Amino acid sequence: MIQAAHLFLSLIIVRFPVSAENSPVIVFVKSPRRGMVKSRLAASVGDDAALGLYTCFVEDTVTMLLQNQFPLVVFFHPAREERVITRWLGRDTEIFPQHGADLGERMKNAFRDTFSRGSTCAVLIGSDMPNLPADALHEAFAALKDHDVVLGPSFDGGYYLIGFRSDTFLPDIFDGISWSTPIVFEQTLAILGGLKYRVHILEMRRDIDTFDDLTLFFRDNLSLSPALSATIRYIRSHIPEISRQVRYERKV
User: Fold this and answer.
1) pLDDT tens sequence across 63-105
2) Which of 1, 206, 207, 244 has the fewest CB atoms within 10 Å, measured from its CB?
3) DSSP per residue over 74-101, as a string?
């Protein structure tokens, strides 16, 4: 799975080379190690399938960005896995290790690193939403022209996207947040509101963290050609119970 993804992404990268633009999309990824990714999903589908799905999530996300010519910067975790990430995503992908004791510190430092290299604005996303449309990113960058921050709320109470201009970047927004709880977005918005930041809020979307999330993703994207989605292909070939369930629901 990892080797196939590497070959596929390398072909895309040759066509759309990563450039040093001033408005990159930061993508957070984890090293593709069995038992180390998508733990809640793994509880339902097993470690092997969770790993296979995760590599597809990342492949779909990176492919969308490159096909739409968004400048891409990948921040990976853990920091010692640089060789694994390079072998997976290819040498043409700009990668940097994540640094920090928790998710908040790692996001804060990723923005700091990105702005220190001269970027004028940046948007950060995770790799749990393989169907994130390019339009959402276009909207985010357009909003940063006259807003201080942009947020994309997720149905689980967190957010799937956060973006700043370099002159409005607020490091403290990542402090004191109860990460991995249903109040992350609420806490973040309260801090921004207290500081009178101008916030643009994107459409609410769903991360894929659980089996139910995966089933909803498949149902909502049933008409999508498997040729256009590694995630859809993987579900159809490796998790047939989801296909059966969705087909049954359509008949009822």
Assistant:
1) 999 999 999 999 999 999 999 999 999 989 999 999 999 999 9
2) 244
3) EEEESGGGHHHHHHHH-TTS-EEE--SS
pTM across the whole model: 0.91
Contact 137, 25 (CB under 8 A): yes
Say which CATH class 2-207 falls into: alpha beta
Instruction: Report the alpha-carbon distance of residue 166 to residue 120 in Å, rounded.
Output: 5
Render the chain in DSSP notation, one character per residue.
-HHHHHHHHHHHHHHS-----SSPEEEEEE---TTSS-HHHHHHH-HHHHHHHHHHHHHHHHHHHHHTT--EEEEEESGGGHHHHHHHH-TTS-EEE--SSSHHHHHHHHHHHHHHTT-SEEEEE-SS-TT--HHHHHHHHHHTTT-SEEEEEBTTSSEEEEEEETTT--GGGGSS--TTSTTHHHHHHHHHHHTT--EEE---B----SHHHHHHHHHHTTTS-GGG-HHHHHHHHH-HHHHHHHHHHHH-
Lowest-pLDDT range of 10-19, 30-39, 44-53, 119-128: 10-19
